[in-house]
Amino acid sequence: MADQIEGRCLCGAVKIQLEAPAGWVGVCHCRMCQRWSGSLWAGFPADHETITVTGPVRRYRSSQLAERAFCETCGSHLWMRDHKEGAPYDLMPGLFDESRTWPLQGEIYVDEAMASMAMAGQHRRATAAEYRAKNPETEGVSDE
């Protein structure tokens, strides 16, 4: 895997350079992610100090915990990230050509998944209750 990769939005106005990519993808089936993505949200983690972003980025505070970002020009989804200073990014894998070969490592909120988005394969799975038990700060975060 490359030590540094570059991704871009649909129109190319936003570019993201990333050092030491994770090399795997995770998905979330929560209702908020469904509304944002149209089906399920896929992403991979990256430390904030490994990323350089250029271009017209618009941020939206989707909950008391997190922001979601998109290209101001074409609307491509870029990342989700906690509001905490120095928080890691969860980047959208489709922005990076290299991610096409990365395996699915896990999925969360599987009990809220749309029937059409069932994921096959051997990887970690967690229900909403299981995920919230390990991440108590997410309790009560919902768009409903």
CATH architecture assignment: Beta Complex
| Oligomeric state | single chain
Rg over alpha carbons:
15 Å
Strand content: 35-45%
What's the main sheet like?
A: 8 strands, mixed
What does the overall shape look like?
A: globular
Question: Distance N terminus to C terminus?
Answer: 40 Å
- Provide the CATH topology: Metal Binding Protein, Guanine Nucleotide Exchange Factor, Chain A
Please tally the helical runs, counting DSSP H or I stretches of 4 or more residues: 2
| Unreliable stretches covering 5 or more consecutive residues | none
Q: What average pLDDT do the residues reach?
A: 92
How many β-strands, per DSSP? 11
Order of helices and strands: EEEHEEEEEEEEH
CATH class, named Mainly Beta
Task: Give an overview of the whole structure.
The protein is mostly beta strands and 144 residues long. The chain has a single domain (4-138), classed as Metal Binding Protein, Guanine Nucleotide Exchange Factor, Chain A, CATH 2.170.150. The chain is 10% helix and 36% strand. The chain is built from two helices and eleven strands, in the order E-E-E-H-E-E-E-E-E-E-E-E-H. The protein has helices spanning 31-37, 128-134; strands spanning 4-8, 15-19, 25-28, 41-46, 51-54, 57-61, 66-71, 77-82, 89-91, 104-108, 124-126. It has an eight-stranded mixed beta sheet with strand order 6-7-8-9-4-3-10-11. Strands 1-2-5 form a three-stranded antiparallel beta sheet, with no helix packed on it. The longest helix has 7 residues, at 31-37. The model has no long low-confidence stretch (mean pLDDT 92).
